[in-house]
Task: structure prediction
Amino acid sequence: MTEHATEQAEKHTFKAEVNQILSLVVNSLYTHKEVFLRELISNASDALDHLSFKALTDESALGDDTELGIRITVDADARTVTISDNGVGMGHDELAENLGTIAHSGTRRLAEQMTGDTGADVNLIGQFGVGFYSAFLVAERVEVVSRKAGGDEAWRWASTADGSYTLEPAERDGRGTDVILHLRKDADEDEFLRDWVLRDLVRKYSDYVRHPIRLRTETGEGDEKTTSWEQVNKGSALWARRKGDITAEQATEFYKHLTHDWEAPLAHIHFKVEGMQEMAGLLFLPRRAPMEALARRKSGVRLFVKRVFVMDDCEELLPDYLRFVRGVVDSDDLPLNVSREFLQKDKTTAAIRKQVVRHALRMLDELADRADADADQEAQTEDGDGGGDDGGDDGGDAKAPPAATYADFWRQFGPILKEGVHADQANREQIAKLLRFTSSEGDELWSLAQYVLRMKDGQESIYYVTAPSRAAAESSPHLEALRDRGYEVLYMTDPIDEWVVDGLREFDGKSLVAAAKGALDLPESDEEKEQREEKEGALEGLLGRLKDVLSGDVEDVRVTSRLTDSPACLVVGEGGIAPHVERLLRAQNADIPEQKRILEINPAHPVVERLNALAGDDARSADVEDGAHLLYDQALIAEGSPVADPAQFARRLTRLLRTALG
Ligand code: ADP
Result:
């Protein structure tokens, strides 16, 4: 039983900062009282780690007591919760030093920054570890009985957080530390006397602490009463293992546990970073988009600090465009008590995030590579270390069940990943490699790299067309000249694609050129150029007439290099947006200015030639005017846009038919 200070007890006063910290902790964390258990277990785990580290070089360090672990005992009658470990323990001076001053460097920094203004100081607490003093969140009195490893005397440290503590000799079997919490006599604290509450807290915060955490449980009544030690935590943190030591089955099982998904992930990557930073991560690519998560824009990464759970949905570690990634990240460099505000400002977090992004993209890259390789043979992939890594990173290994294909990923999450082209300039090249489009070469999903490999001799640019559907893209008149030359055209049928290429601009040193935008400067021979200029000169009269007649509808009229079969088409100016996207934005009430386009006419087309011949004939002026309007309207219809005045269009067409049919 515990007794209050005896005559032998030495009385010490806390250093001033300790009092300040104590009151700050108690005043700021009272809504998160439960963290005391996490903090004390973390201390116990550190003490065990220190001992096993010692035992590496000194075999006698463990003695007979070789089974390292943490034990939690509840005494409901005495209202105590005791957290015990058989770790390094503390002697007299260490108790005084560690628990009576501010030993911990994080806490010391906190103390230095405190202003004395409680309001401002409460904001500081989230940035530093609070450690041992969190015991006073639930306890009115805390006793620490400890015996140092290798020593034979034990000491009892005790305090009621009233500005002082006592130290006196005590008894303890074997090395280690007991932290005895005398819970406050408040209904609030009663819950911590319940087995199931403690069990849940251990599982929530400390499931992956590598030492066993056992809870003493009693069953039966009176003489029949038996006590047993139940291990509460899982114990092993999969991600903390050496790279390559995780099987695909283990990763899948962990993924299901983490996400409650019933399907295996498409891919995973395990990575460890050592050196300047110490961290580990295990990231997953789900097979299906978890709708609520995507809509909520919550990140699926869980943050641990030294194997101790700290935060769910840690969006500070993963940019929005990777919000489909799930997994855990474990840092050795952050304090346990981190807050979101702290993470947003902290430099360490930025460095961690960089690693997470890098490995998430690598996971995708490896899945894409594997999908290519799978085309030839069964997946028998080696570790996909990208090479050229910065020091200290041992790379990563991503594995996926053989059935996983990159196309599966792309169909689920492609539209989200595309956001990264704008959002993450630093990784733009990396992201560009991961983009997929269909093209005039077929309905498969092609990468830009595949396109580049297929480029024709003399072809300098990557051509694409944005359209509301594949069918619309295929029948777009804008592709005629490109098709004539055998150039492949990428089909961009997602409305966001317009914006994506705008951010991309080029790939592999080749610019991305819209088939229906700006000037399409196709490479041409001197002879071709001469012919074109000659025709343009000959068409000047018609161009002038068309500009007059259509001045309300189009920005300009010019001769095209795009067309072979159609008489005319409409193109968007250099910075403009495609008409189907414009309609879409209008439908969503976006306030966008009226956009006039450019009418391009095909000099080789008989209709254009005939109109040109009539352009100077005053007697045929009305026919030329009708022809101009019809040219414009049919260009709209050909690209899938509505005509502005269908009744007018029908009247003109009828007039034309009547003449044509005599
Ligand atoms: P931190 O754990 O963040 O260093 P704390 O205030 O929680 O800060 O603890 C202060 C110090 O007390 C620790 O650094 C450690 O040296 C010592 N200590 C705390 N708990 C234990 C324990 N169970 N066994 C051994 N030493 C401990």
Notes: The longest strand covers residues 139-147. Residues 347-374 form the longest helix (28 residues).
